[in-house]
Each structure stands twice: as C-alpha cells, then as structure tokens.
Amino acid sequence: MTDPPDPMQKWPTGRLLSTAARLVEHAWTEALEKRGLTHAGMIALHFLDAGPLSQTDMARLAKVETQTMSRTVERLERAGFIERRADESDRRRMLVTRTPAGDEAWASIRSVESEVFPAHSDSPELRAKLLEIIHRAAEGRWD
Q1: Whole-number Å distance between alpha carbons of 19 and 109
Q2: Which of the two ends of the chain, N or C, has the fewest CB atoms closer than 10 A to its terminal CB?
Q3: Per-residue pLDDT for the chain (143 aa), expressed as one digit of tens each?
Q4: Spatial distance between the Cα atoms of 32 and 8, rounded to a whole number of angstroms
C-alpha cells in the first residue's frame, strides 16, 4: 500500500515557509530551554559578540520593537547572562554587555543548530532567498 499524497505539496510557498518557521521555532525552543535560554535570548547574546550595544540597537538588529528587546534583556539580566552599564561617553545611555555566565551560555548554544538540524542544507541559494524574504517583509518596520 502506498502512502497518500502529501497535501502540503499543493500549498503556496508562503504557507510552507510559515509552517517550516513554526516547526523550527519549536525545535529551537526545546533545545534552548535545556540551557535556560529563549530564542530571543540567544539572538541577544549573539549580537553582543560584537561588544556592548544599547537595547535600541539590539532591537533594530533583531527587527523587534524596543519594548520586546527590553523584556528579553530583563530576563537575561535576571539570569545573570548580561548586565547594563552607563555608556562612558553618554551617561544617559545604557549599554548591554555579556557577563562571564553569558559567555558560557553563548558558548553552550553555539552548537545547537547542528544538534537540532544535523541534516539541514546550508545552501547559498536558500540562504539568499530567506534573507530576501526577511528584508522585504521588514521594509519600513524597523528603520
């Protein structure tokens, strides 16, 4: 007996992308929860590889509202992964930096993608198309 045809074969690309994104998010969430992090927290820790950043800059890079990044930073701060300090050149501005615990957390999640998706394809064409979709969908939202 053969398997029935996959109904998703006839879905529009946008619906497929949305479904794939949701399933990827679930896999990430499970893997990161084991390390005491969220997907948003992982992204924030990644941005801090470049050095201290303001919450506003982090929100712009993540393409989220400033309030959303604020909540992520608060959670990371409570967990001891980051700290906020006044900018030496502008004491009104707060900069976010990773703590040693944050460095350890970041190091522990660097391999999550290969653990969660060991057989995934990292083709340049797929990456280029996904980046195009992301940039086009974000136009005018987080300038």
Answers
A1: 24
A2: N
A3: 777 788 888 888 888 888 888 888 888 888 889 888 988 999 999 999 999 999 999 999 998 999 999 999 999 999 999 999 998 888 888 899 999 999 999 998 887 877 777 565 667 888 888 888 888 888 877 55
A4: 28
- 3-class SS of residue 63: coil
Is residue 2 one of the residues assigned to a domain? no
Distance CA 12, CA 106 (A): 36
Distance, CA of 11 to CA of 40 (rounded, Å) = 29
The boundaries of the domain holding residue 49 are: 27-112+120-138
Q: How many domains does the chain have?
A: 1
Would you state the structure tokens that stand for residue 34, as one six-digit string? 């084991």
The CATH number of residue 77's host domain is 1.10.10.10
Question: What is the chain's length?
Answer: 143
Instruction: Tell whether 100 is covered by a domain.
Output: yes
**Does 76 fall in a domain?**
yes
Quick one: how far is CA 113 from the chain centroid? 12
Any domain includes 42 = yes
Name residue, tokens 């309030």: 67
